[in-house]
Specification:
The chain is α+β, with helices and mostly antiparallel strands. The chain contains 15 helices and 13 strands. The chain has helices spanning 2-12, 19-67, 70-81, 88-94, 98-106, 128-139, 192-223, 225-242, 257-327, 333-365, 377-387, 389-394, 413-429, 476-482, 488-498; strands at 110-115, 121-124, 150-154, 158-165, 170-179, 183-190, 372-376, 398-401, 408-412, 436-444, 447-455, 503-508, 511-519. It is rod-shaped and about 175 Å long. The model is unreliable at 1-15 and 476-480 (pLDDT under 50).
């Protein structure tokens, strides 16, 4: 079940992308979208707006022309044309008001006015005959270009249209109609300028857009790091808190609301650390209270039976040697000292066994409740090895332990030291072969696995499950040689049960390995 949850947690992170990359994509995408929209609007609507504005210009020019005294100007223009003056064009323009001349020049207008009977007329700008012929064709509906024109606006006395001039291969905007039925007029302006301007403008937009994207993208890439870095730090902090690691703290400084959030994370981390410690202790105490009532009676019976059995042998030895001294079986001082040494040694073993039994009884009855706290397991193991250095040297043993990495755990500091000490004593007493003891600490999900392995003879598989039973000994002769009582591993089992952890043993090719677990 835990493996499935771990896989689901890993799978849920596959769709997550960096906030910084998302911001860069959004901002650059928005700029690119704006440039494309501007180019699209420019290409689609610029010519229409231009044509609308030019249509207004043509109508305004029409009003100015309509205000003129057309008949008088026609006569004056005809008289100038008969003089064959070299400056005829300048003379013809001088007969029109300055305002009209300026407007026609600035807006690139050409126009012509003819009498309804086509007996004479006025013109300004490009070829007069061509314009007169086009106007005559419009008026009498036989112009060849009219079929290809697009009418944009029409009224009773004027028509505004877009037409293609095949002779010049250009598009023109024209306004033509009549004044009071006596005169026909045609005003036109070329559209090629705006079409060329739209193309140039679009190319300019694309070039400036690319440059803006490059500069803006670089700026966004550098600037967003200022805001995404503290958010990434908060993300990592939250992940460590989820793994119950409360040592990490928020340290960035952005000068905005992110700092307030970071301080809240730090405060929450501190509170959670205290709360979890209290909850673990309370949970263990509650679970222990439930189990105590069931175990007490059985523990008392087992305790009395085991003590009676284990004390029987040393008591018998002490009694026998004491009676021998009393009866005077030996009378030389050396033999008497030997008898006394045996009695003292057996009494010491009994005393040590009683102490261990009391410790075990307290653990199993719940009197020595574990005090859960967070501590450095690496430092604890180093302390045990330092205390046992003399025994290690006496056994001519080599201990291998990697103390470079700190491992923080939740457990009872004193009871954990008792477990490590028992494992080390057991390993030293059963050491053989290369005489190497290896201590390893490895991570397993939310726990650490501590293993103490020694080279030597393996334990029979049938005896492995019984090692944790009080007073059980695999090799009773060897146990008696180094003073083993068969209680040490029972104490380890009781401590692990009290902390709701696991312990075990396994044979290896070169020896035996004992292990136990603790919460990270």
């Amino acid at each position: 079940m835990k493996k499935k949850e771990a896989k689901s947690e890993k799978g849920s992170g596959k769709g997550i992308h960096s906030l910084r990359h998302q911001l860069i994509l959004i901002i650059v995408g928005a700029v690119l979208f704006s440039i494309l929209i501007s180019a699209l609007i420019n290409g689609v609507f610029l010519e229409r707006v231009y044509i609308h504005e030019k249509s207004e210009v043509l109508l305004k020019a029409r009003e100015e022309i309509q205000k003129l005294d057309l008949e008088a100007l026609i006569e004056k223009q005809e008289s100038l044309e008969t003089t064959n003056d070299e400056k005829e064009e300048e003379a013809l323009e001088s007969i029109f008001p300055d305002k009209l001349n300026v407007e026609c020049s600035s807006n690139n207008l050409s126009w012509v006015v003819i009498r309804a009977d086509n007996t004479g007329g006025l013109h300004w700008g490009e070829n007069e005959r061509k314009l007169q012929g086009k106007l005559f064709g419009y008026a009498y509906d036989f112009d060849t270009d009219k079929a290809q024109s697009t009418i944009l606006k029409q009224a009773d006395d004027y028509t505004i249209q877009k037409v293609r001039d095949h002779f010049q291969s250009m598009d023109f905007l024209e306004c033509w109609g009549y004044f009071d039925g006596d005169y026909y007029y045609l005003i036109r302006t070329p559209l090629s300028a705006i079409q060329d301007s739209a193309k140039v403008s679009n190319r300019f937009y694309m070039l400036t857009g690319i440059l803006t994207l490059l500069i803006g993208g670089l700026f966004v890439f550098v600037y967003t790091k200022r805001y995404t870095k503290p958010i990434e730090e908060l993300t990592q902090l939250s992940q460590k808190m989820a793994d119950l690691d409360f040592e990490a703290k928020y340290e960035s400084c952005t000068g905005n609301e992110i700092d307030v959030l970071g301080e809240s994370f730090n405060k929450m981390s501190k509170e959670l650390k205290m709360t979890i410690s209290e909850l673990k202790a309370a949970n263990l105490e509650l679970q222990r209270d439930i189990d105590d009532k069931i175990k007490i009676d059985q523990m008392r019976k087992e305790f009395l039976d085991s003590v009676s059995h284990e004390l029987k042998t040393p008591i018998a030895v002490i009694q026998g040697y004491a009676e021998g001294l009393k009866d005077g079986i030996v009378d030389d001082p050396e033999s008497m000292d030997y008898y006394c040494d045996v009695i003292i040694d057996e009494a010491a073993k009994m005393n040590n066994m009683v102490k261990k039994l009391l410790t075990l009884n307290h653990l199993e009855s719940g009197q020595d409740a574990p005090q859960m706290e967070r501590f450095n397991l690496t430092e604890l193991i180093q302390g045990v090895l330092q205390k046992m250095q003399l025994m290690i040297e006496e056994k001519n043993a080599k201990v291998i332990f990697d103390a470079e990495q700190d491992w923080y755990v939740w457990a009872d500091d004193f009871q954990t030291e008792e477990v490590v000490t028992n494992y080390m004593s057991n390993a030293l007493n059963h050491l053989d072969g290369e005489r190497i003891i290896t201590i390893t600490v490895t991570k397993q999900e939310k726990r650490v696995l501590v293993t103490v392995a020694n080279t030597g003879n393996p334990i029979p598989e049938s005896d492995l499950p019984n090692l944790w039973i009080k007073f059980y000994k695999v090799d009773k002769a060897r146990s008696r040689e180094y003073g083993g009582s068969g209680i040490g591993l029972s104490i380890v089992k009781a401590i692990m049960n009290g902390m709701k952890q696991e312990c075990g043993v396994e044979n290896r090719t070169d020896g035996v390995a004992f292990w136990f677990t603790l919460d990270c």
